[in-house]
Amino acid sequence: MEKYLINPNQKISKINKDIYGHFSEHLGRCIYDGIFVGEDSKIPNVNGMRCDVVDALKQMGLPVLRWPGGCFADEYHWKDGIGPKQSRKKMINTHWGGVVEDNSFGTHEYFELCRQLGCDTYINGNVGSGSVREMSEWVEYMTFDGVSPMAELRAKNGSKEPWSVKYFGVGNESWGCGGEMDPEYYGCLFKRYNTYVRNYDGGKPILRIACGPNVDDYHWTKQVMDKVKNKADGISLHYYTIPTGNWTHKGSATDFDLNEYNSTVCKAYRMEELVSNHLKMMDSVKPDHRVKLIVDEWGTWYDVEPGTNPGFLYQQNTMRDAIVAGLTLNIFNKHADRIMMANIAQTVNVLQAVILTEGEKMVLTPTYHVFKMYKEHQENTLIGSFITTKELYSENDNKKYPQLVESASVDGNGVICSTITNTSADESAEICCQVADFNAGEIKAEILSGEIHAKNDFENGNSVTVREFTDFTKTADGFRALIPACSVVKFLIK
Ligand code: AHR
Fold first, then answer.
1. CA-CA distances (angstroms) from residue 171 to 130, 183, 194?
2. Among 71, 85, 369, 453, which lies 20 to 30 A Cα-Cα from 468?
3. Of all protein residues, whose CA lies closest to atom 8 belonging to ligand 1?
4. Ligand 1 pocket check for 172: Cβ under 6 Å
């Protein structure tokens, strides 16, 4: 029997809702087909945005959306994506399949999407192939409310009112697709470009995100932090879970054996080590914690589905992905005092997507359900919690990782939200939960569970879905429960 202790008196930090953020790039069928079908499409839409997808994302609770990339961001020239659609420049999407990008989804469409979703904005600027002036003018175009060339151009294109930009990324993966730079050089460039990202919206300064490390590149973190520490609000980490650890053969999204399942979970759990170590490195440069950590690309990355464009990164999604999402979001919650935002890659039809579409059809993936279950954590206060757990072993990695990963938070009315992920493919876990100063009138629970390969698809529909969970009993100071294998369980303790 595992012991699970929750202490609502130990209030640690607010969980920024943006930890539950998403990322949508001009990549494959994420934007086009997945989100934006155009006003003339027979698929029901509002101003070109798919109604089914927007509704589903709203119900899931999508707080912030990163756009336009990714690698695409460092080749994106925003002026190509404004003005009358028929005269917008067409370009080659060199990173993603070499297809023609017609720029029909641009700045105005992005803000319209965020308006429909009711979410905050995160724009990623172009350092790799763009000029300082181009970046500066984009910020003026989006946010300046007065008389200026860019504000006039915006009004001419139909938006008299400026928009609000919450986060602005100064470059993406500048160590790789964003320009193959050294950290010292990028750090200097950040300062130069960032100087001209002006705060026009007096009350709300833009939060500036510096390009952070790839996986465990602690040297990058240290060098960039050293340069940007007084200017950046956040530094971004990218970490993808690749089951085989091999970029050429990453493994199938649906056809995997137990070892590969265990290795995926073990590798996903590495997020804990990466976050902790990068935070330590950041502290060694700037101990006041003012610069926050952003994990603006994370998730599983498999081989593309057979027969699909290799440049489109389209993959299916199973209960294995739900476990990765559940444990990762619990890790982020636990670091809520230092992580300001995280963005899973990528919202629709790409990598660990929450939604897949095929023409008019749409399915919600197991990952979608985890995000929806965890919605209560958004803006709650992280509270003290601890669980004892068996350690599991991944043969492929020769490494141990925990069977149970949890986090707990409390809302303004004292309702505790506890989420537990059982990462084991085949072993349930009995837990005994004690809540300090327990006076719960009611405990309600939900579960997402299934065999590790279980998925939703266009043939069989949405069979993997959230159910009420009743396999627990209340005790004098908490509850006892049997957490099934391969499951994500949420308790709401009122
Ligand atoms: O999410 C796919 C790609 O992964 C992004 O464009 C890039 O930033 C990363 O390498």
1. 10, 12, 10
2. 453
3. 70
4. yes
| HSE toward the beta carbon, residue 20, CA cutoff 13 A | 28
- Residue closest via CA to ligand 1's atom 5 equals 70
Q: How far is the CA of 230 from the centre of ligand 1 (A)?
A: 27
Ligand 1 centroid – CA 71 distance (Å)? 6
Flag whether pLDDT at 377 surpasses 80: yes
25 lines ligand 1 (CB under 6 A): yes
Of 439, 436, 376, residue with least CA distance to 409 = 376
> What are the tokens at 200?
């026009």
What pLDDT does residue 441 have?
Answer: 83
For the cut 90, the answer to whether the pLDDT of residue 440 exceeds it is no
In this predicted structure, which of 95-104, 272-281, 431-440 has the lowest mean pLDDT?
Answer: 431-440
Percent of the chain with pLDDT over 90: 98
| Best of 27, 65, 67, 71 for a ligand 1 pocket test (most atoms within 8 Å of beta carbon) | 71
Show which residues are catalytic. Answer: 173, 297
| C-beta 366 within 6 A of ligand 1 | no
pLDDT score, position 173: 98
**Residue whose structure tokens are 């993808």:** 240
Within 10 angstroms of residue 436's Cβ, the number of other Cβ atoms is 14
Could you tell me the residue ranges of all domains in the chain? 2-8+383-493, 15-379
Identify the residue whose C-alpha is closest to ligand 1 atom 9.
70
Q: What residue owns the CA closest to ligand 1's atom 2?
A: 70
Tokens found for residue 205 = 């300064």
- Given a contact cutoff of 8 angstroms between Cβ atoms, the answer to whether 407 and 384 are in contact is no
State the pLDDT confidence band at 460, using cuts at 50, 70 and 90: confident
Question: Is residue 268 lining ligand 1, measured as CB closer than 6 Å?
Answer: no
Tell whether ligand 1 has an atom less than 6 A from the beta carbon of residue 345: yes
Class in CATH terms, 2-8+383-493: mainly beta
The number of CA neighbours under 13 Å toward the Cβ of 159 is: 20
Distance of CA 199 to the CA centre of its chain: 26
Superfamily of domain 15-379: Glycosidases (3.20.20.80)
- Give the pLDDT of residue 392: 98
**First vs last C-alpha separation in the chain:** 24
pLDDT tens, residue by residue, 199-245: 997 768 999 999 999 999 999 999 999 999 999 999 999 999 999 99
Q: How much is the pTM?
A: 0.97
For residue 135, report the distance from its CA to the centre of ligand 1, in Å: 21
CA distance 38 to 204: 32
Ligand 1 atom with least separation from CA of 176? 10
